[in-house]
């Protein structure tokens, strides 16, 4: 189809923190400037800007794209913001990709920013309005309900225990201890800590959940002829995919994310991947809750349905396992500033595939990785495959 | 990659509570008057009469609840109102100890997705369970709607107080 080849050539991020003193705009600038600096480019070298940021309700301001654009390097440039809920971070990289693959631009700065701490008394309040105003909101729902309902359906369908699932939280929070930007890295956390944490909405307990976070991440994407000039280690976008299921979420089988599989199949087909379990060396699936990592690994066709927990218990998904999963520490460990969290996963693959992940480096010189994000009413998935 | 991380200025809870940080607050007064819509308007009117109804798609044959005027899969108009039972099966549930603002509840709520009898398999609605010990709730449990008395109903999903076990 005559698409231009696209690479990621630079990445940078802020520290992920519970409350940043910076405004969202300032955070965006911090990440964007770090990304440009990493590939020795300046804003003059950038043709267009893609912004990723989740609900306006977090910030209490309308037209958030326009508000953030100065911090994202958008002054006097073509700017766009895509928004697909929690799927936004990976989607922003997909948008950056098609800006360049189409031939319209040679260089794009992708900036994902989230400042959740402004929303009082708790940013969970910003999510109440995702429920149907007539048939659901009068019942007094909160965001945790949908995760708890989905987690219970998943556990029950495959006969999984809380202990099976808590292993994911332990792995990711331990991995995050090696991430210089992490909010909740903890090298000593145990399964008992997770199982003994406060019950929020059974089966969800406090340490099953990622934290409220402020943070920003940016990447620089370039067409092949620019990428080869900028760096000796371009990381290529090999495939992208995204898919949206129905908003009638109570009519769906919540135990398996079909839309994740559809998005993965789209990306794998583009990347020429026929055997994902052999051809993918690192996975960064979306892990806002521990069970979601397992759910998504299955949707990404990396494990059989209901079998990702067993693989986790066997150590296959550890950083030195056969398929390292969330070597970054994920949302559970590094933190979950919604859109920025998922772009952090893309940045992690960038650093891992270049062999620059420091203490987090996955052994064996991985050549290909997949990052995935998820959101809306448990209905959207965005997938990107990167390779060197 | 440590050099690619900006050392953000971050704050503790005390910095905020002790007023060491300047911040602005604003209370939004956004008000909305939502139209229930064609399908849900009828759904609410039937709830007021103590009945659950679904809509039938002539193309795929599904009987759907919540009812809708078009089938999102066939992208074609639905054609019939179908009376459903007020009984069903728990597809999944949670036992929720917190409110949306993370304040703990004295008595947990038990939200559930309930597949309604008479609709196509797996067609559930979100509601609450009541008159049941949270410890005995299980997926697959058979339940029945507990309705408000007719004079208290107002054409809302809350005209059903909750669902309780059939046995």
Characterise this structure.
The complex is a heterodimer of chains A (388) and B (167). With 388 residues, chain A is α/β, with parallel strands linked by helices. Chain A has 14 helices and eleven strands. Chain A has one domain: 3-Layer(aba) Sandwich (Peroxisomal Thiolase, Chain A, domain 1), CATH 3.40.47.10. In chain A, α6 packs across α11. Chain B is mainly beta and 167 residues long. Chain B has one domain. Chain B has two helices and twelve strands; from the N terminus they run βααβββββββββββ. In chain B, strands 7, 8, 9, 10, 11 and 12 form a six-stranded antiparallel beta sheet that branches. In chain B, strands 3-2-6 form a three-stranded antiparallel beta sheet, covered by helices on one side. Chain B starts with a strand and ends with a strand. The interface between A and B is large, with 68 and 59 residues.
């Amino acid at each position: 189809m005559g698409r231009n080849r696209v690479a990621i050539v630079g990445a940078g991020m802020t520290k992920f923190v519970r409350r940043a003193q910076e405004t969202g705009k300032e955070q965006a600038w911090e990440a964007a400037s770090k990304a440009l600096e990493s590939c020795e480019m300046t804003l003059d070298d950038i043709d267009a800007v893609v912004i990723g940021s989740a609900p306006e309700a977090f910030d209490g301001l309308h037209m958030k794209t326009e508000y953030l654009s100065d911090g994202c390097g958008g002054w006097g440039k073509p700017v766009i913001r895509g928004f697909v809920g929690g799927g936004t971070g990976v989607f922003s990289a997909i948008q950056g990709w098609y800006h360049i693959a189409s031939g319209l631009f040679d260089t794009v700065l992708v900036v994902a920013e989230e400042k959740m701490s402004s929303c009082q008394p708790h940013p969970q309040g910003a999510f109440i309005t995702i429920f149907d105003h007539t048939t659901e909101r009068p019942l007094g729902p909160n965001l945790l309900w949908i995760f708890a309902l989905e987690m219970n359906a998943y556990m029950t369908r495959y006969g999984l225990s809380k202990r099976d699932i808590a292993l994911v939280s332990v792995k990711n929070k331990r991995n995050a201890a090696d991430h210089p930007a992490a909010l909740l890295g903890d090298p000593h956390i145990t399964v008992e800590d997770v199982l003994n944490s406060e019950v929020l909405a059974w089966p969800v307990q406090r340490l099953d959940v990622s934290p409220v976070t402020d943070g920003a991440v940016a990447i620089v994407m370039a067409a092949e002829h620019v990428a080869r000039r900028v760096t000796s280690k371009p990381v290529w976008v090999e495939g992208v995919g995204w898919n949206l299921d129905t908003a009638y979420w109570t009519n769906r089988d919540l135990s398996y994310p079909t839309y994740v599989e559809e998005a993965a199949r789209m990306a794998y087909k583009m990347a020429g991947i026929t055997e994902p379990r052999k051809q993918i060396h690192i996975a960064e699936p979306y892990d806002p809750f521990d069970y979601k990592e397992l759910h998504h690994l299955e949707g990404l066709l990396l494990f059989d349905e209901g079998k990702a927990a067993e693989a986790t218990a066997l150590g296959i998904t550890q950083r030195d396992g056969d398929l390292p999963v969330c070597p970054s520490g994920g949302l559970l460990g590094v933190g979950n500033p919604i859109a920025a969290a998922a772009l952090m996963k893309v940045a992690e693959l960038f650093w891992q595939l270049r062999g620059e992940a420091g203490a987090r480096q996955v052994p064996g010189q991985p050549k290909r990785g997949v990052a995935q994000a998820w959101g809306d009413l448990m209905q959207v998935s965005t997938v990107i495959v990167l390779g060197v | 990659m440590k050099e690619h991380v900006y050392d953000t200025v971050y704050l503790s809870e005390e910095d905020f509570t002790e007023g060491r940080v300047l911040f602005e607050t604003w209370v939004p007064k956004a008000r909305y008057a939502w139209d229930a819509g064609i399908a849900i308007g009828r759904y609410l009117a039937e709830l007021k009469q103590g009945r659950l109804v679904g809509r039938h798609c002539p193309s795929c044959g599904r009987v759907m609840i919540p009812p809708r005027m078009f089938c999102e899969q066939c992208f074609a108009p639905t054609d019939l109102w179908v009376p459903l039972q007020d009984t069903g099966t728990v597809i999944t549930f949670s036992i929720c100890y917190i409110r949306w603002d993370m304040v703990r509840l004295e008595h947990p709520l038990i939200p559930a997705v309930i597949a309604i009898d008479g609709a196509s398999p797996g067609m559930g609605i979100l509601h609450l369970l009541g008159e049941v010990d949270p410890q005995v709730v299980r997926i697959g449990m058979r339940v029945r709607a507990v309705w408000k008395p007719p004079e208290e109903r107002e054409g809302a999903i809350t005209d059903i107080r909750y669902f309780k076990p059939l046995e």
